[in-house]
Write a structure and sequence with these properties.
single chain, 19 helices, 46% helix, 483 residues
């Protein structure tokens, strides 16, 4: 199974698998991929400018199997991702925001494996469905189910990397059609692994979370982490120092560059006792957390009716979450506005950016969409007009906004809550409604919100939120060496 692999996972992790490990990996590999054989043949690709992000080029499979190779006079900067949940896509768009116009003659490609119509994309989708279902069940059932799922999500040993890389060998056709001179900046370890397996020499892997696990790093790539804990732990685990660096948090350009004015506006709102606290509550890509979030809305209803709290609820593209929100709001007799497209999102945000006196027309605004891009982008767009982001400790735990960290979906996320709490721009994880309410009452006074915003301002001066900016610069430096 591994004799034709481009890299040796065993050499990377510094050990050979036991007999039991071999049986486990072979069994899980067969469960994932069946009897299919990996192919080195790249699929024909085309790139067209995005209708969502001006200047960004989105790849897809060419209509004709005999289409000419996708080549540019200057090799593009490729942001690779997989649309699994919202997190990996969100990080990819954050990286893209720094890649656009970073080099005058170089295009930026957005290469989503699931946008390439192929058996390989179907293989990924089937895997993602199992993960999403597990996340929802764990969140809804709690107890033993949540404990078992939590343990599974933080037990990424050497065998997990062996399995991840072996699956990546099957995904080579999805990326092999790109120019091998390109630098690949990947927001998912499967993308980075597939790029290495397909023969790309300049691959950057944006490592997720704040908990070191083998399957999130990639042999043969430059693995960039968001903070010192992961950096230290990966060195201790044996990741080669020349394949590892600490870059900073994965944050979009607009949020980083607007930190001074956004924090100043939040501090002014916090000092005004007549201003309600604006809570942005998004739902993750797996659509979990329904029970916790709806209970939180019920608990917040009295504060909303008193004018102490405003809610921005982003159901994303999850119809079941939008329905749950509507049912809960009706039961609580809460009035709300409804936004269903990107034009509405932009008008809503731009109105609130007009000045300190601007307010939404309703105390609650429900955002729900049919398309995936708007579902992901809306939370990023609304952060600038929100006082507090209320979310599980996943990818947005690293964002430059005061954060109320609520109940995690996987145990690996707990360490991201510790990161934001220690930095001072967010809370510890609130696993109960009562604990979350205590923090929300504190946010109604000036001290905590002011402290968090001052922490963000200070962290920004030392580049904590510059992870994507630094990753793109490293990618451009790599590109310069092959031209």
């Amino acid at each position: 199974m591994i004799k034709d692999n481009v890299v040796s996972v065993d050499d990377f992790v510094g050990s050979t698998p036991s007999g039991q490990s071999c049986v486990k990996v072979l069994t899980l590999q067969h469960f994932s991929c069946g009897s299919r054989k990996p192919s080195m043949q790249g699929l024909p690709l085309v790139a067209a400018e995005s209708d969502k992000v001006p200047g960004l080029y989105v790849t897809k499979r060419a209509d004709s199997p005999t289409a000419p190779p996708l080549r540019e006079s200057v090799p593009p900067l490729v942001i690779g991702t997989i649309r699994m949940g919202f997190g990996h896509h969100r990080i990819a768009y954050a990286a893209s925001s720094w890649g656009l116009n970073a080099s005058k003659d170089r295009k930026t490609y957005f290469h989503d494996f699931l946008n390439i119509d192929s058996p390989e994309a179907t293989l990924i989708e089937d895997t993602d469905k199992l993960y999403s279902k597990g996340s929802r069940w764990a969140s809804e059932l709690g107890g033993i189910a949540e404990s078992a799922w939590g343990g599974l999500t933080k037990s990424g040993d050497e065998d997990s990397l062996r399995l991840t890389y072996q699956m990546a060998e099957h995904l080579r056709p999805v990326i092999a059609g790109l120019d091998k001179r390109s630098v690949i900046v990947a927001s998912h370890s499967l993308v980075a692994s597939a790029a290495v397996a397909a023969g790309f020499k300049n691959v950057i892997n944006l490592v997720i979370d704040n908990h070191a696990q083998w399957f999130v790093v990639v042999p043969g790539a430059l693995n960039l982490v968001q903070g010192p804990t992961n950096y230290h732990d990966f060195l201790r685990m044996g990741v080669p120092a020349d394949q590892l660096a600490c870059a900073g948090h994965w944050c979009p350009r607009d949020l980083v560059e607007s930190i001074p004015e956004t924090c100043a506006a939040r501090i002014r709102r916090a000092a005004n006792p007549d201003k309600p606290v604006r809570l942005l509550i998004p739902v993750g890509g797996a659509g979990a957390q329904r029970k916790f979030v709806t209970k939180l809305i019920v608990a917040l209803a009295p504060l909303v009716k008193k004018g102490k709290v405003q809610l921005f609820l982003n159901a994303g593209d999850h119809a079941h979450m939008k329905a749950a929100f509507i049912e809960t709001l009706a039961a609580c007799k809460l009035d709300y506005g409804n936004v269903t497209d990107m034009d509405g999102v932009m008008k809503f945000r731009d109105n609130l950016l007009k000045g300190d006196d601007a307010e939404p027309s309703k105390p609650i605004t429900l955002f729900g969409f049919e398309d995936y891009f708007t579902a992901v982008a809306t939370s990023d767009l609304l952060i600038r007009v929100s006082d507090v982001l209320v979310c599980k400790p996943a990818e947005m735990a690293f964002y430059p906004v005061p954060k109320l960290m609520v109940r995690r979906v996987g145990d690996h996320e707990a360490y991201s809550a510790l990161r934001t709490s220690e930095l001072g721009d967010g809370t510890l994880e609130c696993r109960t409604i009562d604990m979350a309410l205590k923090y929300i009452h504190l946010f109604g006074k000036p001290e905590l919100l002011t402290s968090m915003n001052k922490a963000i301002l200070q962290l920004n001066t030392i580049g904590i939120y510059d992870g994507c900016k630094n990753a793109i610069q490293m990618a451009l430096d790599m590109a310069a060496t092959v031209e």
